[in-house]
Amino acid sequence: MAFASTSQPVLATRIRQNIRDHIESPQSPLVLKKEAVKEVLGYPVTLDPEWLMLWKTLQAFYPDNATFVPSIATVIINWCDAFLSWLESKENEDAVEKLLDALTHVNRLDLMIQVSGKSTRPVTTWDANKSMFVIALPKGKIPQESTVLAGFTSDLLRLSASSPMLGATELDEPASTSTLAPEDAEDWADLDLGSPESHTVVPSRQKQAPSGAKDTGPDVIPELARIPRPEELTRSPPYWIVVRQEGRQRVVIQGSHAPSLASLDQYLKRWCRGDTGRSDRPPIVEIKLHESAFGLGLLHDTLTLETDRFREVSAMTVLVFVERVLGYTALPSSGSAGSVWEFKRTKAFV
Predict the structure, then answer these.
(1) Phi/psi of residue 241, each to 5°?
(2) 316 φ/ψ angles, rounded to the nearest 5 degrees
């Protein structure tokens, strides 16, 4: 008598071995890092990824399946590092206490791993209904570790008392992550995951005194503790962009407004020509965003365009985009005409 096959899809042997070695082994870096979080938080960190679902969604980006699980393990380790830094910051003592109160009814810290169809880097959000953190992996290649760590740091700092979820102004909300209704926020209504600087305002020097008003004297430099972090400080105008043509093979764009650089980066990558001399047609110009040396969270302040010595890359498209699309105003040349261009925008972006 013949029976229909009822076999279920299973993970490749190499992937299952890597789960044991990199996720479950007591001596794995991930397990040791989770123990470090437990020592500080007082609650164990638990996770149970749906590996089959994750592999089906991401396998196209991992031709060598041996790198799949280690890559995800590294992302979780980066999350733990960012979370530990937040826990151990003195500025967050009150917020940590409120987090501990939110975890009392579950006695553990759960992590959920899922995939985002929009984000280009791993993103973390807080699910107040389930008292757990969600880590959303990008549907693509995972960026370098420094970018992942800085991104998680930004995510944790952006969580605020008014909304337990991540702000979605610059980060795309992960797919399948529900937005909490106002009443859902009550579980974490008073929890502020941002540092004090993010809620203080630098004394404004942009307010114009009424016509005929008396001069009140020289300005005072604000106290250091009242100045926002670089990633917060650079969100407000004026915005600056400096473009440099460094020889025939390299263009460097430096900007104070990270979203402006990100928009330029995406545009250039979309329209960059492919190398017709190769079957895989890679871009003929390497376009790369660089992280800032300052701040706690994710902040890009430089974009570079480079090509090989047999080709040339010009700054012309960049100059047009900065003025016509981003709305920056060119400033008078400072003596490096033809190789350095400076731009400024005084109106804030929405």
Answers:
(1) -140, 135
(2) -60, -45
